[in-house]
Design brief:
By secondary structure, the protein is mainly beta. It has helices at about 15-25, 190-195; strands at about 35, 45-70, 75-85, 90-100, 110-115, 125-130, 140, 160-165, 180. The two termini are about 20 Å apart.
């Protein structure tokens, strides 16, 4: 395997450095897997507390899911991956649930809050709330059990949510980060390769 030579931060990029990258993307050299963006770590479990009188009534399992991607100049969210936390559990009797959220690292554009129906099993958490930022730390959850797993934001929402769809059920694995698999495969389309002299 021919390894790409690292270009140090602050150094000028030379033609030979760019040539290596073009050759790797064109499948002319085998560099294995290229990591474009490292996966973000899974967040810690959310803090949960009893809020004001409300709909939740029972024992709930809750998961915070950090959402990665980017926002367009027009304000649309383009989702590329999800990083779920460990579960937290709370029992309430006719009270909303106050979530205390951790902030995600760079690349986190939003958070999704998922919880089970009352008495639900681990891993059966459903979409409850879309929190479209990475700054809010406290959210009130007064969703009924019947509303869970519905109302996910879409391309028709304001602002629109594009890219990977927000799932109705909690993601089971971390799907953040972007990699390309080199392994000699031609990753560029034929017109692009010709334009680059391939």
């Amino acid at each position: 395997m021919a390894d790409l030579q690292q270009v140090s931060i602050g150094e000028n990029t030379y033609a030979m450095d760019l040539n290596q990258l073009v050759q790797a993307l064109a499948g002319l050299i085998d560099v294995g897997q290229l990591s474009l963006f490292q996966p973000i770590p899974n967040p810690s479990a959310p803090g949960l507390a009893q809020g004001a009188a409300g709909n939740p009534n029972g024992t709930y399992r809750c998961v915070q899911v950090n959402v990665t991607g980017f926002k367009t100049g027009a304000g649309a969210f383009v989702v590329t991956g999800f990083a779920p936390s460990a579960e937290a559990t709370i029992t309430v009797a006719g009270y909303a649930i106050t979530w205390t959220l951790s902030l995600g690292p760079a690349g986190t554009i939003a958070r999704v809050l998922c919880r089970t129906v009352a008495g639900g099993a681990s891993g059966t958490e459903k979409f409850a709330i879309w929190q479209p930022d990475n700054t809010t730390t406290t959210v009130q959850d007064n969703q009924t059990d019947a509303d869970l797993g519905t109302g996910m934001p879409t391309a028709s929402s304001t602002p629109p949510v594009l890219g990977t769809a927000i799932p109705a059920s909690v993601p089971s694995t971390n799907s953040t980060g972007t990699t390309l698999i080199g392994a000699g495969a031609n990753l560029l389309t034929s017109p692009q390769a010709r334009m680059m002299g391939g």
